[in-house]
Amino acid sequence: MCGIVGYVGPNKAVPFIMEGLAKLEYRGYDSAGVAVLENGSIEIRKTEGRLKKLADILEHETLGATTGIGHTRWATHGRPSNRNAHPHSDCTGNFALVHNGIIENFTSIKEGLLERGHKFTSETDTEVVVHLIEEFYKGDLVRAVQDTVAEVRGSYALVVVSCLHPDMIVCARKDSPLVIGLGEGENYVASDIPAVLRHTRRTYVLEDGEMAVLRSGGVDVMTTTGRPVSKNVFNVTWDPVQAERGGYPHFMLTEIHEQPRAIRDTLRGRISEDRTRVVLDEVHLTRDELAGLRGLAITACGTAYHAGMVTKYLIERLARIPVEIDVASEFRYKDPLVGPDWPLVVISQSGETADTLASLREGKRRGAHVIGITNVVGSSVAREASDVVYTWAGPEIAVASTKAYVTQLVVGSLLAIWIAQAKGTISQDLAHELISELNELPEKAQRVLEMEDEVKAVAKFVAEWDDAFFIGRGLDFMLCLEGQLKLKEISYIHAEGYPAGELKHGTLALITEGVPVIALATQLDLLDKTISNITEVKARGGHVTGVTMENGRELEKHLDHILCLPRTHQYLAPVLAVIPLQLLSYYAAIERGADVDKPRNLAKSVTVE
Ligand code: F6R
User: Fold this and answer.
1) 604 occurs within a structural domain
2) Mean pLDDT for the chain overall
3) Is the backbone peptide bond immediately before 87 cis, with ω within 30 degrees of 0?
4) Which numbered atom of ligand 1 lies nearest the CA of 400?
5) pLDDT-derived band at 42, boundaries 50, 70, 90
6) Can you state the angle between helices 51-59 and 13-23, rounded to 10 degrees?
7) What share of residues in the chain are helix, strand, coil (percent, to 5)?
8) Choosing from 423, 538, 598, 604, which is the catalytic residue?
9) What pLDDT digit, counting tens, does each position of 198-238 carry?
10) Range list of β-strands (E), 287-382
11) Residues 439 and 462 in one domain
């Protein structure tokens, strides 16, 4: 995720761009830059670091340009640095471009461009796009952009300026947002509405496969194949604060709703084109090394640890090797079982958690190959691990982790299938089924989000209690742990996550009349067992909300409430089933008047032991 802003009109572009970028810093903040058309050439200023650093540079400049573009970055390809910051330019310096998204086939495009003599100045995937525009340009910038997007695979919001066309901006979108702001004698483009809201409420929202040409006098919209499109103006009615969170009142809710996109981005490029294999080129373990694995260890903290538990379960089920898992604050002190033939997987959204980092270092000291799963390019985990598999959730602003967790589950599932395919412990049929179900998760996650009102009703009930229970078996139990953590950390309702069969060995006495129990029942091979445990709870008066899949409806008669998810393979069900749990916590916290985005005593990045 990155933030993009563009301006064309009679006024100075830089102040507009900087003001717009400030509203988009939630989309990325590891580097920033602008490109403006100044006296017949393109001037680019960019720097690693937050927007303030760019503002300090620009303060000493007198750029009077009235056309320009800007970018605030969240690194994907290439760590945060001055060179990798956008905008990027071609060999001639005639074109400059900002990009949000991932160009999947950039390696092959880059090889061709290098052979044809192009010089690259960054490690980004983006830079290939501007060199392609340079190659395709024959006097018509719009055509050059159309020809370029026909070559690239992946997701993009692209915004281009050229000193050969000083009064215009060309932009195109696929799978990354772009809105056009319609002003009086000036027009704007941005990744999100807040960037333009102080200047206009009249917008066009570009759809996938559409592009736009902005001039001060007007905006033309067309498809990327050149067919004119007539757009309806979208009049924004949100208040400015709400607009900064994509129309949602809190970042946590915005981020819950971003999950279909985050899942899609995390899958991108990691499944072979014929959809038969998982491709994890980032992990440099050979087939022989994988075949010889005796075991694996996983370590992480909090929510990331819960994603690790799901990953452990899947690796053991699919790849048939033992997986040790510990919270990082324990792992580092337990003389852990890692070494040259026992790799370590560390999972960390921020990549800076002190206990996780210490565990990573302990693993390396013992000669283990360390696979880091993190959401932050250039973070300590990314720099120090032997290999990094990124989760492409984009910056997570709310303290409670949601979209990062879901993308960790996706990477965990990919890793499990990848190891199992290398070891030959998974049948082709099962691998194909899981891969095809993985591809459907973004759309199914979107459908789960449509259950928001149903979940809200459950949350209203739960919010009246001081205790809640989450029960489930197999992967559902691992999800219970995440469900109870989320509820506790943002609503301050005490909650316990239990293996459903374990209640009777201890705390069944705490289930009294009306106590809310969330029963997860997505593991259909265990449905009968879970139903027996639900019956035990019901017999003590517990108020049970069941979360199951469409094909688990037989559960309904045992429940007070049912939340039915779209059907998927039960190994992938956690990715969908966590969404109602996140919404439940969110709405319970709202009911109780808690500050969801900044829960008490919880920091986004825990850099102390
Ligand atoms: C919970 C939460 C924390 C983090 C934990 C690890 O919502 O966010 O439990 O998951 O502090 O943080 P990272 O993943 O950054 O290492």
Assistant:
1) no
2) 94
3) yes
4) 7
5) very high
6) 160
7) 40, 25, 35
8) 604
9) 899 999 999 999 999 999 999 999 999 999 999 999 888 77
10) 296-300, 323-327, 344-348, 370-374
11) no
8 Å CB contact between 439 and 267: yes
Task: Please say if the pLDDT value at position 506 is more than 90.
Answer: no
| Residue ranges making up the domain that contains 537 | 451-591
Q: Are 406 and 373 in contact (CB under 8 A)?
A: no
Kindly tell me if the per-residue pLDDT of 243 is higher than 90. no
pTM of the complete model beyond 0.70: yes
CA distance 163 to 238: 36
**In the chain, how many domains are there?**
3
Instruction: Write the CB contacts of 29 (distance below 8 Å, at least 6 apart in sequence).
Output: 50, 51, 72, 73, 74, 395
Q: Is residue 608 part of a domain?
A: no
pLDDT (0 to 100) of residue 609: 67
Query: Please, is 354 exposed, middle or buried when counting C-beta atoms within 10 Å of its C-beta (0-12, 13-18, 19+)?
Result: middle
Region 470-475: mean pLDDT is 97
- Which is the closest atom of ligand 1 to the Cα of 603? 11
Q: Is the CB of 407 under 6 A from ligand 1?
A: no
Read off the CATH number of the domain in which 265 is found.
3.40.50.10490
Cα-Cα-Cα-Cα torsion 510, 514, 520, 521, nearest 10 degrees, comes to 110
Q: Which residue has the tokens 């809640």?
A: 468
pLDDT at 253 exceeding the cut of 90:
yes
Cα(89) to ligand 1 centroid in Å equals 38
Residue 312 is a catalytic residue? no
Q: Is 604 a catalytic residue?
A: yes
State which amino acid sits at residue 543: H
Structure tokens at 448: 């789960």
Boundary of a domain, candidates 414, 445, 476: 445
